[in-house]
Amino acid sequence: MAEVKQTYPIKGMHCASCVRVIEKSLSQTPGVMNATVNLATEKATVIYDDSECGPSQIASAISSVGYTALVEQTREDEDAEKKEKEKSLKVLRNKVVVSLFFGGLILWGSFPGLSKTSPSLLQMPFVQLLLAIPVQFWAGLDFYKATIPALKHRLANMDTLVALGTTVAFGFSAFITFFPTIVQSIGLEPMPYFDVATIVIGLILLGRYFEAHAKLGTSEAIRKLIGLQAKTARVLRPSVIANEVKQSMDRHADARDDVKYLEIDIPISEVLVGDIIRVRPGEKIPVDGVIMEGESSVDESMITGESIPADKAKGDTVVGATINKSGTFLYKATKVGSETMLAQIIKLVEEAQGSKAPIQRIADSISSYFVPIVIMLAFFTFATWYIFGGPQAFLFALLNSIAVLIIACPCAMGLATPTAIMVGTGKGAEHGILIKDAESLEIAHKINTIVFDKTGTLTNGKPVVTDVILSLNGEESRSFVITQDDMLRLAASIEKGSEHSLGDAIVQEAEKQNIKLESVTKFKAIAGHGVEGTVGDKKVFFGNRRLMEKEKIEILHFVQNDMERLESEGKTVMLLALRQAQGKQAYLAGLIAVADTVKETAKAGIEALQKQGIEVVMITGDNQRTASAIASKLGIKRVLAEVLPDQKEAEVRKIQQEGPSRVGEPRRRKIVAMVGDGINDAPALAAADVGIAMGTGTDIAMEAADITLINKDLMSVAQTLELSKKTMRTIKLNLFWAFGYNILLIPVAMGVLYPFFGILLNPILASVAMATSSISVVGNSLLLKRMKI
C-alpha cells in the first residue's frame, strides 16, 4: 500500500455545484482518501491508495458525472494543455456567435414591434424552430452532457438549471409550432419563445467565454514561472556518446581538440544529475548545480529579488532559470527535473492555488443545497403564477419560472474564493513569497504577534570573530601555557565538527590566520550549551555560561566584566575551558567574542510590522544582555533570551495563550507567526499559527513552514500580511456580491415586484445578469494583480 497524491486537470466545470458533484463522486470511489476540486484552476487533487485505486478509476468516477479528467497529463504537457484551452475557447466562441446570430434573427422575427420590420420568412414558427435546433442541441449540448449524468446520480448543478429552463422554453415553443390550435383552444396565444431559449444559451455561453478569458489571467503567475525555464542545455559528453547522439538526433555539436568531449545542445528534460554544463554570457542557467570551472556574475533576481547580480566562482551553487551576465563557466548538475528550485517553486504555487481556504467552505456548503432549492423555487413560482396569474397565467408562470432557473448563479459563489487565492498566491510568488496553501494565506491577515529567531533571520547568520581574550593567571598559567593563537586553534579544532554558524566563524578565522587545526576525539555537542572534546592531552570545553556552570568551572570577576562589556555591544561571548586528560579540575582559559551583523532590511521590516500594530518578539539562545543589545538596534521591545532550541516551541505556545480577555469572557488566544531559518526552528514553525521560513535557511525549516520567503528581504514579512489582508478583502467582497446577487435577484425573477411596480424580469435579461455576476467576481479578483505590496 502506498499513498499517492496526484492532480488532474478537468474539463467541463462551470460552478460551485460542479465542484461538489465531482468531489462527491470521487469520495465514493474505493481507495480515494481525500479529493479537493478547485473551480478556478479546473483541477482535482486526489489522495488515494494505489493498491485499491488508480488514474483509470479516478477518470471513470469523474466521467460518470459528466466531466473529463486528463489523467495522462504531466508537467511537460503544459503547452498541450494551453493549446487545448485555446481550442476550447475557439469552439466556445463559435457557439456564442452562432447562438447570438440565430437568436437575434428569431428575436427580430418574433418580438412584438420588431417583427414588423423583419422578412416574413423569419416570422414563420417553423423557420424559427429550424434556427433554434442547432442552438439548443449543438451550442447547448454541454449543458445536457453535464446534466444527464448528474441526474443519474441524483445530483444537480448550474447546467441542470440552464438545461431545464431552456428545454422548457424550447419544448413549449415546439409544441406551439406543431399544435397551435390546441394552444388556442385553452385560451393562449400561439406565440413561440424560441428567442428566449436561443438567446439565453448564447448569453450564458458568452459569459463563460469572458469568464474563461479572465480565468486565464488568474493563472498568469504559473505561466510566468514556467516561462523562466531554459529550453536547452549545452552539456559536455564523452565524444563517442556525443557522436551517437548527434547522428541519431541530428543536433548541433562542437568538437574540442584538446579533450575527448563534445559540447552538445540537448533539451533540458534530458539533462542528468552529474552532467557537466557550459553556460555562456547572457544565457539562462538550465538546472541547479555547483560551479567547477570559471567565474561570473549571475542575475538571481528571480529567486532573491536582488537586482544586483551575485558574483559566482568555483564551488558556488547556481540555480536553474537564473541568468548568467558576464563570464563563461562549467558546472555540474546537482538537481534536475522536478528537483530544481524553480520546479519546487512552481509545485508550491500550484498546490497553493489548488487548495481551499476555510472561508470557501461557506460557499461550498451553500452550493450543495443551492441548485435543489432553486428548482423548488422555480416550481413554486410556476404554481403561484399559474393559480393567481389571471388570463395569461400560464405564460407568466412559464416565463417567470424560466427566469428563476436562469438567473440563479452558483458560478459566482464557486469562483469568489479560488480566483482571489490564485491571484494572491501568484502575486506573492512574483515577490518571492511562496505560500503553501490557501489556509495559511487566510490566517495571515489575523496575525497580531510575530516571533523572530535572531541568528540567520534578523542577522545575516555570518558572524565574525572580533575579540580573543586570555584569562589564565597564577596557578592556572603554570598548568597550561596558552596564547591567543592556541585559543583559536583549540576552539576551531573542536568547532570543526559543529554545525553552528558561530563555530563556522571561529574555524574561518583560524583558517584566515593559517592556524593548523588538530584532530578531536570524544566530540560531543550539548544543545543550548556548547561542545566538548579531547584535543591532544587536553579536555576542551567551549560554550556559554551554562556549560561552565554545568562543569563547575569558575568565571573570574575580571572575566565577568569583559563579558558584560562585549555583550552590551551585541556580541556573543563563548568561553574556553581546559582540563588535563587525567586531571579533575578544569580552568577557564579565555573567551572569544563573535559578532553577527544585522540584515540591512531588518530594522525597516520590524518598523513596517509595528506600524501595522503587530507585536514583535525576538527569541534567541543568546544571553539577555547580548539579545537586548541587538533588539535595541532594531527597535524590538520584547526579547526572549537564553531559550534552548528545544524550548522555542513551548515559548511560541505560551505567547499564543497570552491573548487579552474581558471580564466574564474566556481568554482569547493570540494569533502568532514564527519566522526562522534553522533546523532547530522547525518545531516552533510548525507550532505557530503561521510558520514563515527564510528561503536562505534549511530544507527542514522550509518544509515545516506555511510560507517561505525565498528572498533575503525582511520587508517581505510585512508584505505577506498586507497581501493576506488585501486577498481576504477581495474574497469577502466577492462573496458579498455572489450571495447578494442571488438574494436580491431571485425574488425579482419570481415576480415579487409585479404587484407593486408591474415589473417582471425577462429570461433574456436574467441570463445577462447571471453572466455578468460571474465575470464581475473574476474581474474583481484580477484587480489584485495591480496592488502594490
Secondary-structure blueprint of this entry?
Elements: E1 3-11, H1 16-27, E2 32-38, E3 43-49, H2 55-63, E4 68-69, H3 78-110, H4 125-139, H5 141-152, H6 158-178, H7 180-185, H8 194-218, H9 220-227, E5 232-238, H10 239-249, E6 253-255, E7 261-267, E8 276-279, E9 288-294, E10 296-299, H11 301-304, E11 310-312, E12 317-318, E13 323-324, E14 329-335, H12 341-354, H13 360-388, H14 393-407, H15 410-430, E15 433-435, H16 438-444, E16 449-453, H17 454-458, E17 464-470, H18 475-479, H19 484-495, H20 501-512, E18 521-526, E19 530-535, E20 538-543, H21 545-550, H22 557-568, E21 572-580, E22 587-595, H23 602-611, E23 615-619, H24 624-634, E24 638-640, H25 648-656, E25 672-676, H26 682-687, E26 690-694, H27 699-704, E27 707-709, H28 715-750, H29 754-757, H30 763-782
Helix pairs in contact: 1-13, 3-4, 3-8, 4-6, 4-8, 5-6, 6-8, 6-14, 8-30, 12-15, 13-14, 13-15, 14-28, 14-30, 15-28, 15-30, 16-28, 19-20, 22-24, 23-28, 28-30
Which structural class is indicated by helix and strand composition?
alpha+beta
In angstroms, what is the radius of gyration? 35 Å
- Name the helicity range: 40-55%
Low-confidence stretches: 248-259
Morphology call = elongated
Count of helix runs? 30
Proportion in β-strands: 15-25%
How many DSSP E strands?
Answer: 27
**Sheet with the most strands: spatial strand order:** 6-7-5-8-14-9-12
The mean pLDDT is 83
Characterize the largest beta sheet: strand count, sense, and whether it forms a barrel. Answer: 7 strands, antiparallel
Distance between the termini: 45 Å
